Amino acid sequence: VDRGVTLSEALLRHDKWLEKKGIKNANFAVVTWSNWDCRVMLESECRFKKIRKPPYFNRWINLRIPFSEVFGAVRCNLKEAVEIAGL
């Protein structure tokens, strides 16, 4: 983290990557392991740092939900979920 780029730079690079791949304006969603990443952390960091949050971060898929539907309500982190799923 100490040698990483700023949040503003990371969001700009991500945006350019999406544009380069031709999907920036396509219908897509970010996939996370919980709602916390997009709803809480990114939202509050952007507000605190006065950075415009790209609108595509307002639609995401919480992978825990379909995982729980398939494997049951197992409490685990993403690494453990990948192992449970055999991936």
UniProtKB/TrEMBL annotation:
The species this protein was found in: Trifolium medium
GO terms assigned for molecular function: nucleic acid binding
Domain of life per record: Eukaryota
Name of the protein this chain belongs to: ERI1 exoribonuclease
